[in-house]
Design brief:
This protein is α/β, with parallel strands linked by helices. The chain folds into 4 domains: about 10-60, ADC-like domains (N-terminal domain of TfIIb), CATH 2.20.25.90; about 70-145 and about 345-510, Rossmann fold (3-Layer(aba) Sandwich); about 150-335, Dimethylsulfoxide Reductase, domain 2 (3-Layer(aba) Sandwich), CATH 3.40.228.10; about 585-700, Barwin-like endoglucanases. The strands form 8 sheets. Strands 5-4-18-17-16-6-7 form a 7-stranded mixed beta sheet, with helices on one face. Strands 24-26-25-30-23-27 form a 6-stranded mixed beta sheet. The longest helix has 19 residues, at about 85-105. The structure holds iron/sulfur cluster. This is Molybdopterin oxidoreductase family protein.
């Protein structure tokens, strides 16, 4: 049952989980235990009424018995939490941040945000750190999600909008290549667009070390060794050149940098690429012809290709292929990345990143600082310079030059960060830690102060989906007594820090300020109003004025680069940061499963999802399992240079025999990110979640 009052009729909003942001209706229903909200899929251009099991069960979270409804504090780290008033909890946070800054300097106080926060919260978090704290220390968990593809798109096209076209264009493409993306499991309602294309006769190809549900629905599956996608993309482009399949007119008219790329491709001869990737030359030959000889081709990238220490270069390699085939800007064609988190797109546009200001402006750019400082009513010289990225911030917590007092919002880094056991140790070393969350997450368990926050159906605001379409999140019920929005928390803290004049806690007022701050930037929201979003079923940015219809499709007439051309980049294959050896002889790759989401803070508490998937399992090939003496359902001990985990084995021929796959949604001895490698991509600071060397052994069954 919901704890607030029930609405009198159904309320339209969007799912709290992934970036597809499926539309749903929340309708009040009577129940013996009190009013509940029933979730049904709503007609909308993206999901057309479809919802996956996560969206359908989301209302379970509203009245969940684990829900935090009062601030918690503890008087010493080894003491239990006790309930506190909001005044005490907020003053403790203001004091904790202030004391750290007085002792160690302004950057010793910081904020770690999340890609699930509304645009308004993400914007306000960035402003709070720069204006109220005057600190450089802010970054967010989207750094672990989208940063490498974002960096690549910015370099190649001049702007990062995950999908530069509406999702529905997928149905009109004749050939679609998905690289490291598995929408059939993680975004099922999106599959209707792929299915519609297949019904028209389209051909689909999937690149994935696993034979996923998405691969099973495709025509061609390329199964590379994890961490070799870049070599595969270069190999395909080598073949396209060899067979004269590249679009020379497009390259001449719309791009720069091709001659150097063409020269560099000479070393990616097919036999060598087959040796690196494990993909047979004949399969590559077939794939490149399918891609090049179709009327409309799309290349869609996902975390499998991007979460690597060479993630940006890998995304650039696929973009090179798309440019050489003349795809970006053409109808039903192009390159796109399928963003993951609910507001993964909007969350990275408005200043949560260490180096960015709202509208994708760069913090180091004097003109950008002047514009945003003008909107914020502060002197540009007061704004700090860029800080360090997410993992670097976490790695240095509590140490010289690092953050000493941290506020975490909408993120559970104790489970979701790479080398998570080390991150938990760093969190424990802080002088002060405050966490705002719905539940006592694994990160909140380590805090000095925990704040109970509102959730999706209890708040108004906006989200930006994977297409760059700005949507309205609508309040359907009141939050339980004792719970406050993060916007109210930031405004109150700013007041206690002496900067309260600059902060509003009304989401519409914050959105209107965001519009002004983003005006003239690449992610320009100036013309987007809540009324327009309502009337037009979302508005695509850039939207520069209220007369501007918004921009569903980018790049048709040029790229937002100084000369209007897209850029090729020379990128070369290199080994993963860690490759198998005698001690750690196999590869571990990680990802999401169908029933769970991110660090599992919400989905591990949802009965309907636990009924489907009560615990994690590791995918292991039967041949490898036989060599290790592991039976179906038996416990497997996974060990890397950073830690160990113990998870049940699921024997499946769908995975390469040299690789195991594990989902990262679980905690305790099943915390897979205790194993993952924090080696960082030099361009984007993306950690290498998707491949590391692992030792495996059968464990005694529990
Ligand atoms: Fe929610 Fe994503 Fe499932 Fe849609 S696909 S219902 S947005 S989790």
């Amino acid at each position: 049952p919901i704890s607030g009052s029930a609405p009198e009729q159904g309320v339209s909003t969007h799912c709290p989980y992934c970036s597809l942001q499926c539309a749903m209706t929340l309708t009040p229903r009577a129940h013996a235990a009190g009013p509940v909200l029933e979730v049904t899929g709503a007609p909308f251009p993206t999901n057309r009424g479809g919802l996956c099991e996560k969206g359908l069960s989301a209302a379970e979270l509203l009245g969940h018995p684990d829900r935090l409804t009062t601030p918690l504090v503890r008087d010493a780290r080894n003491e239990p939490f006790r309930a506190a008033t909001w005044d005490e909890a907020l003053q403790r946070i203001a004091d904790g941040l202030t004391v750290a800054q007085e002792r160690y300097g302004p950057d010793a106080a910081g904020l770690f945000g999340g890609g699930g926060m509304t645009n308004e919260k993400a914007y306000q978090a960035g402003k709070f750190v720069r204006v109220a704290l005057r600190s450089a220390s802010i970054d967010y968990n989207g750094r672990f999600c989208m940063s490498s593809a974002a960096a690549a798109a910015t370099k190649a096209f001049g702007v990062d909008r995950g999908m530069p076209f509406p999702l529905s264009d997928i149905a009109r493409a004749d050939t679609v290549l998905l690289v490291g993306s598995n929408p059939a499991d993680v975004m099922p309602p999106a599959m209707r667009w792929f299915a519609a294309g297949r019904d028209r006769g389209a051909t689909h190809l999937v690149v994935d070390p696993r034979y996923t549900a998405t691969a099973a629905a495709a025509d061609v599956h390329l199964q590379p060794v994890p961490g070799t996608d870049l070599a595969l993309a270069n190999g395909l482009l080598h073949l396209a050149v060899k067979h004269r399949l590249v679009d020379t007119a497009y390259i001449a008219e719309r791009t720069t940098g091709w001659p150097a790329v063409k020269r560099a491709l000479r070393q990616y001869w097919p036999d060598r690429v087959e040796r690196i990737t494990g993909v047979p030359v004949a399969v590559m030959e077939r794939a490149v012809r399918l891609l090049a000889e179709s009327r409309a081709t799309m290349i869609l990238s996902g975390r499998g290709a991007e979460q690597h220490a060479k993630g940006s270069d890998t995304a650039l390699a696929w973009i090179n292929l798309a440019l050489a085939l003349g795809l970006p800007g053409r109808p039903s064609s192009g390159w796109a990345t399928m963003t993951g988190q609910g507001n993964g797109q909007g969350g990275r546009e408005h200043g949560q990143k260490a180096d960015q200001l709202p509208g994708y402006r760069m913090l180091a750019d004097p003109a950008a600082r002047a514009h945003v400082a003008g909107v914020w009513g502060v002197d540009p010289d007061e704004l700090p310079q860029p800080g360090v990225s997410a993992y670097e911030m976490l790695d240095r917590l509590g140490s010289d030059g690092g953050v000493r007092a941290l506020l975490v919002m909408a993120s559970n880094v104790a489970v979701s960060a790479p080398r998570a056991a080390h991150v938990r140790e760093r969190l424990r070393s802080l002088d002060f830690l405050a966490v705002s969350d719905l539940f006592l997450s694994e990160t909140a368990e380590l805090a000095d102060v925990v704040l109970p926050t509102t959730q999706w159906a209890e708040e108004d605001g906006t989200m930006t989906n994977l297409e760059g379409r700005v949507l309205r999140r609508r309040r359907a019920t009141d939050a339980p007594d004792g719970v406050r929005s993060d916007l109210a928390v930031l405004a109150d803290l700013a007041r206690r820090l002496g900067r309260g004049d600059h902060f509003d806690d009304d989401p519409r007022a914050v959105f209107d300020e965001l519009r002004r701050a983003s005006a003239g930037g690449k992610a320009d929201y100036a013309g987007i109003t809540w009324e327009r979003i309502e009337a037009e079923r979302g508005v695509f940015w850039p939207c520069r004025s209220e007369d501007d219809a918004g921009t569903p499709r980018l790049f048709r007439d040029g790229f937002p680069t100084p000369d209007g051309r897209a850029r090729f980049h020379v990128v070369h294959h290199r080994d993963a940061a860690e490759t198998p050896d005698d001690e750690y002889p196999y590869r571990l790759t990680t990802g999401r499963s169908r029933a769970h989401y991110q660090s599992g803070t919400q989905t591990r508490r949802t009965k309907a999802l636990l009924d489907t998937e009560p615990e994690p399992s590791v995918d292991i090939h039967p041949d490898l399992a036989a060599r290790l003496g592991v039976a179906e359902g038996g416990d497997l001990l996974l060990r890397t240079r950073r830690g160990r985990a113990r998870v049940r084995a699921r024997l499946t021929p769908t995975i390469r025999p040299d690789t195991v796959f594990a989902p990262f949604h679980w905690a305790g001895e099943q915390t897979i990110n205790d194993l993952t490698n924090p080696a960082l991509d030099p361009a984007s600071r993306m950690p290498e979640f998707k491949v590391c060397a692992v030792a495996l052994e059968a464990a005694t069954t529990r």
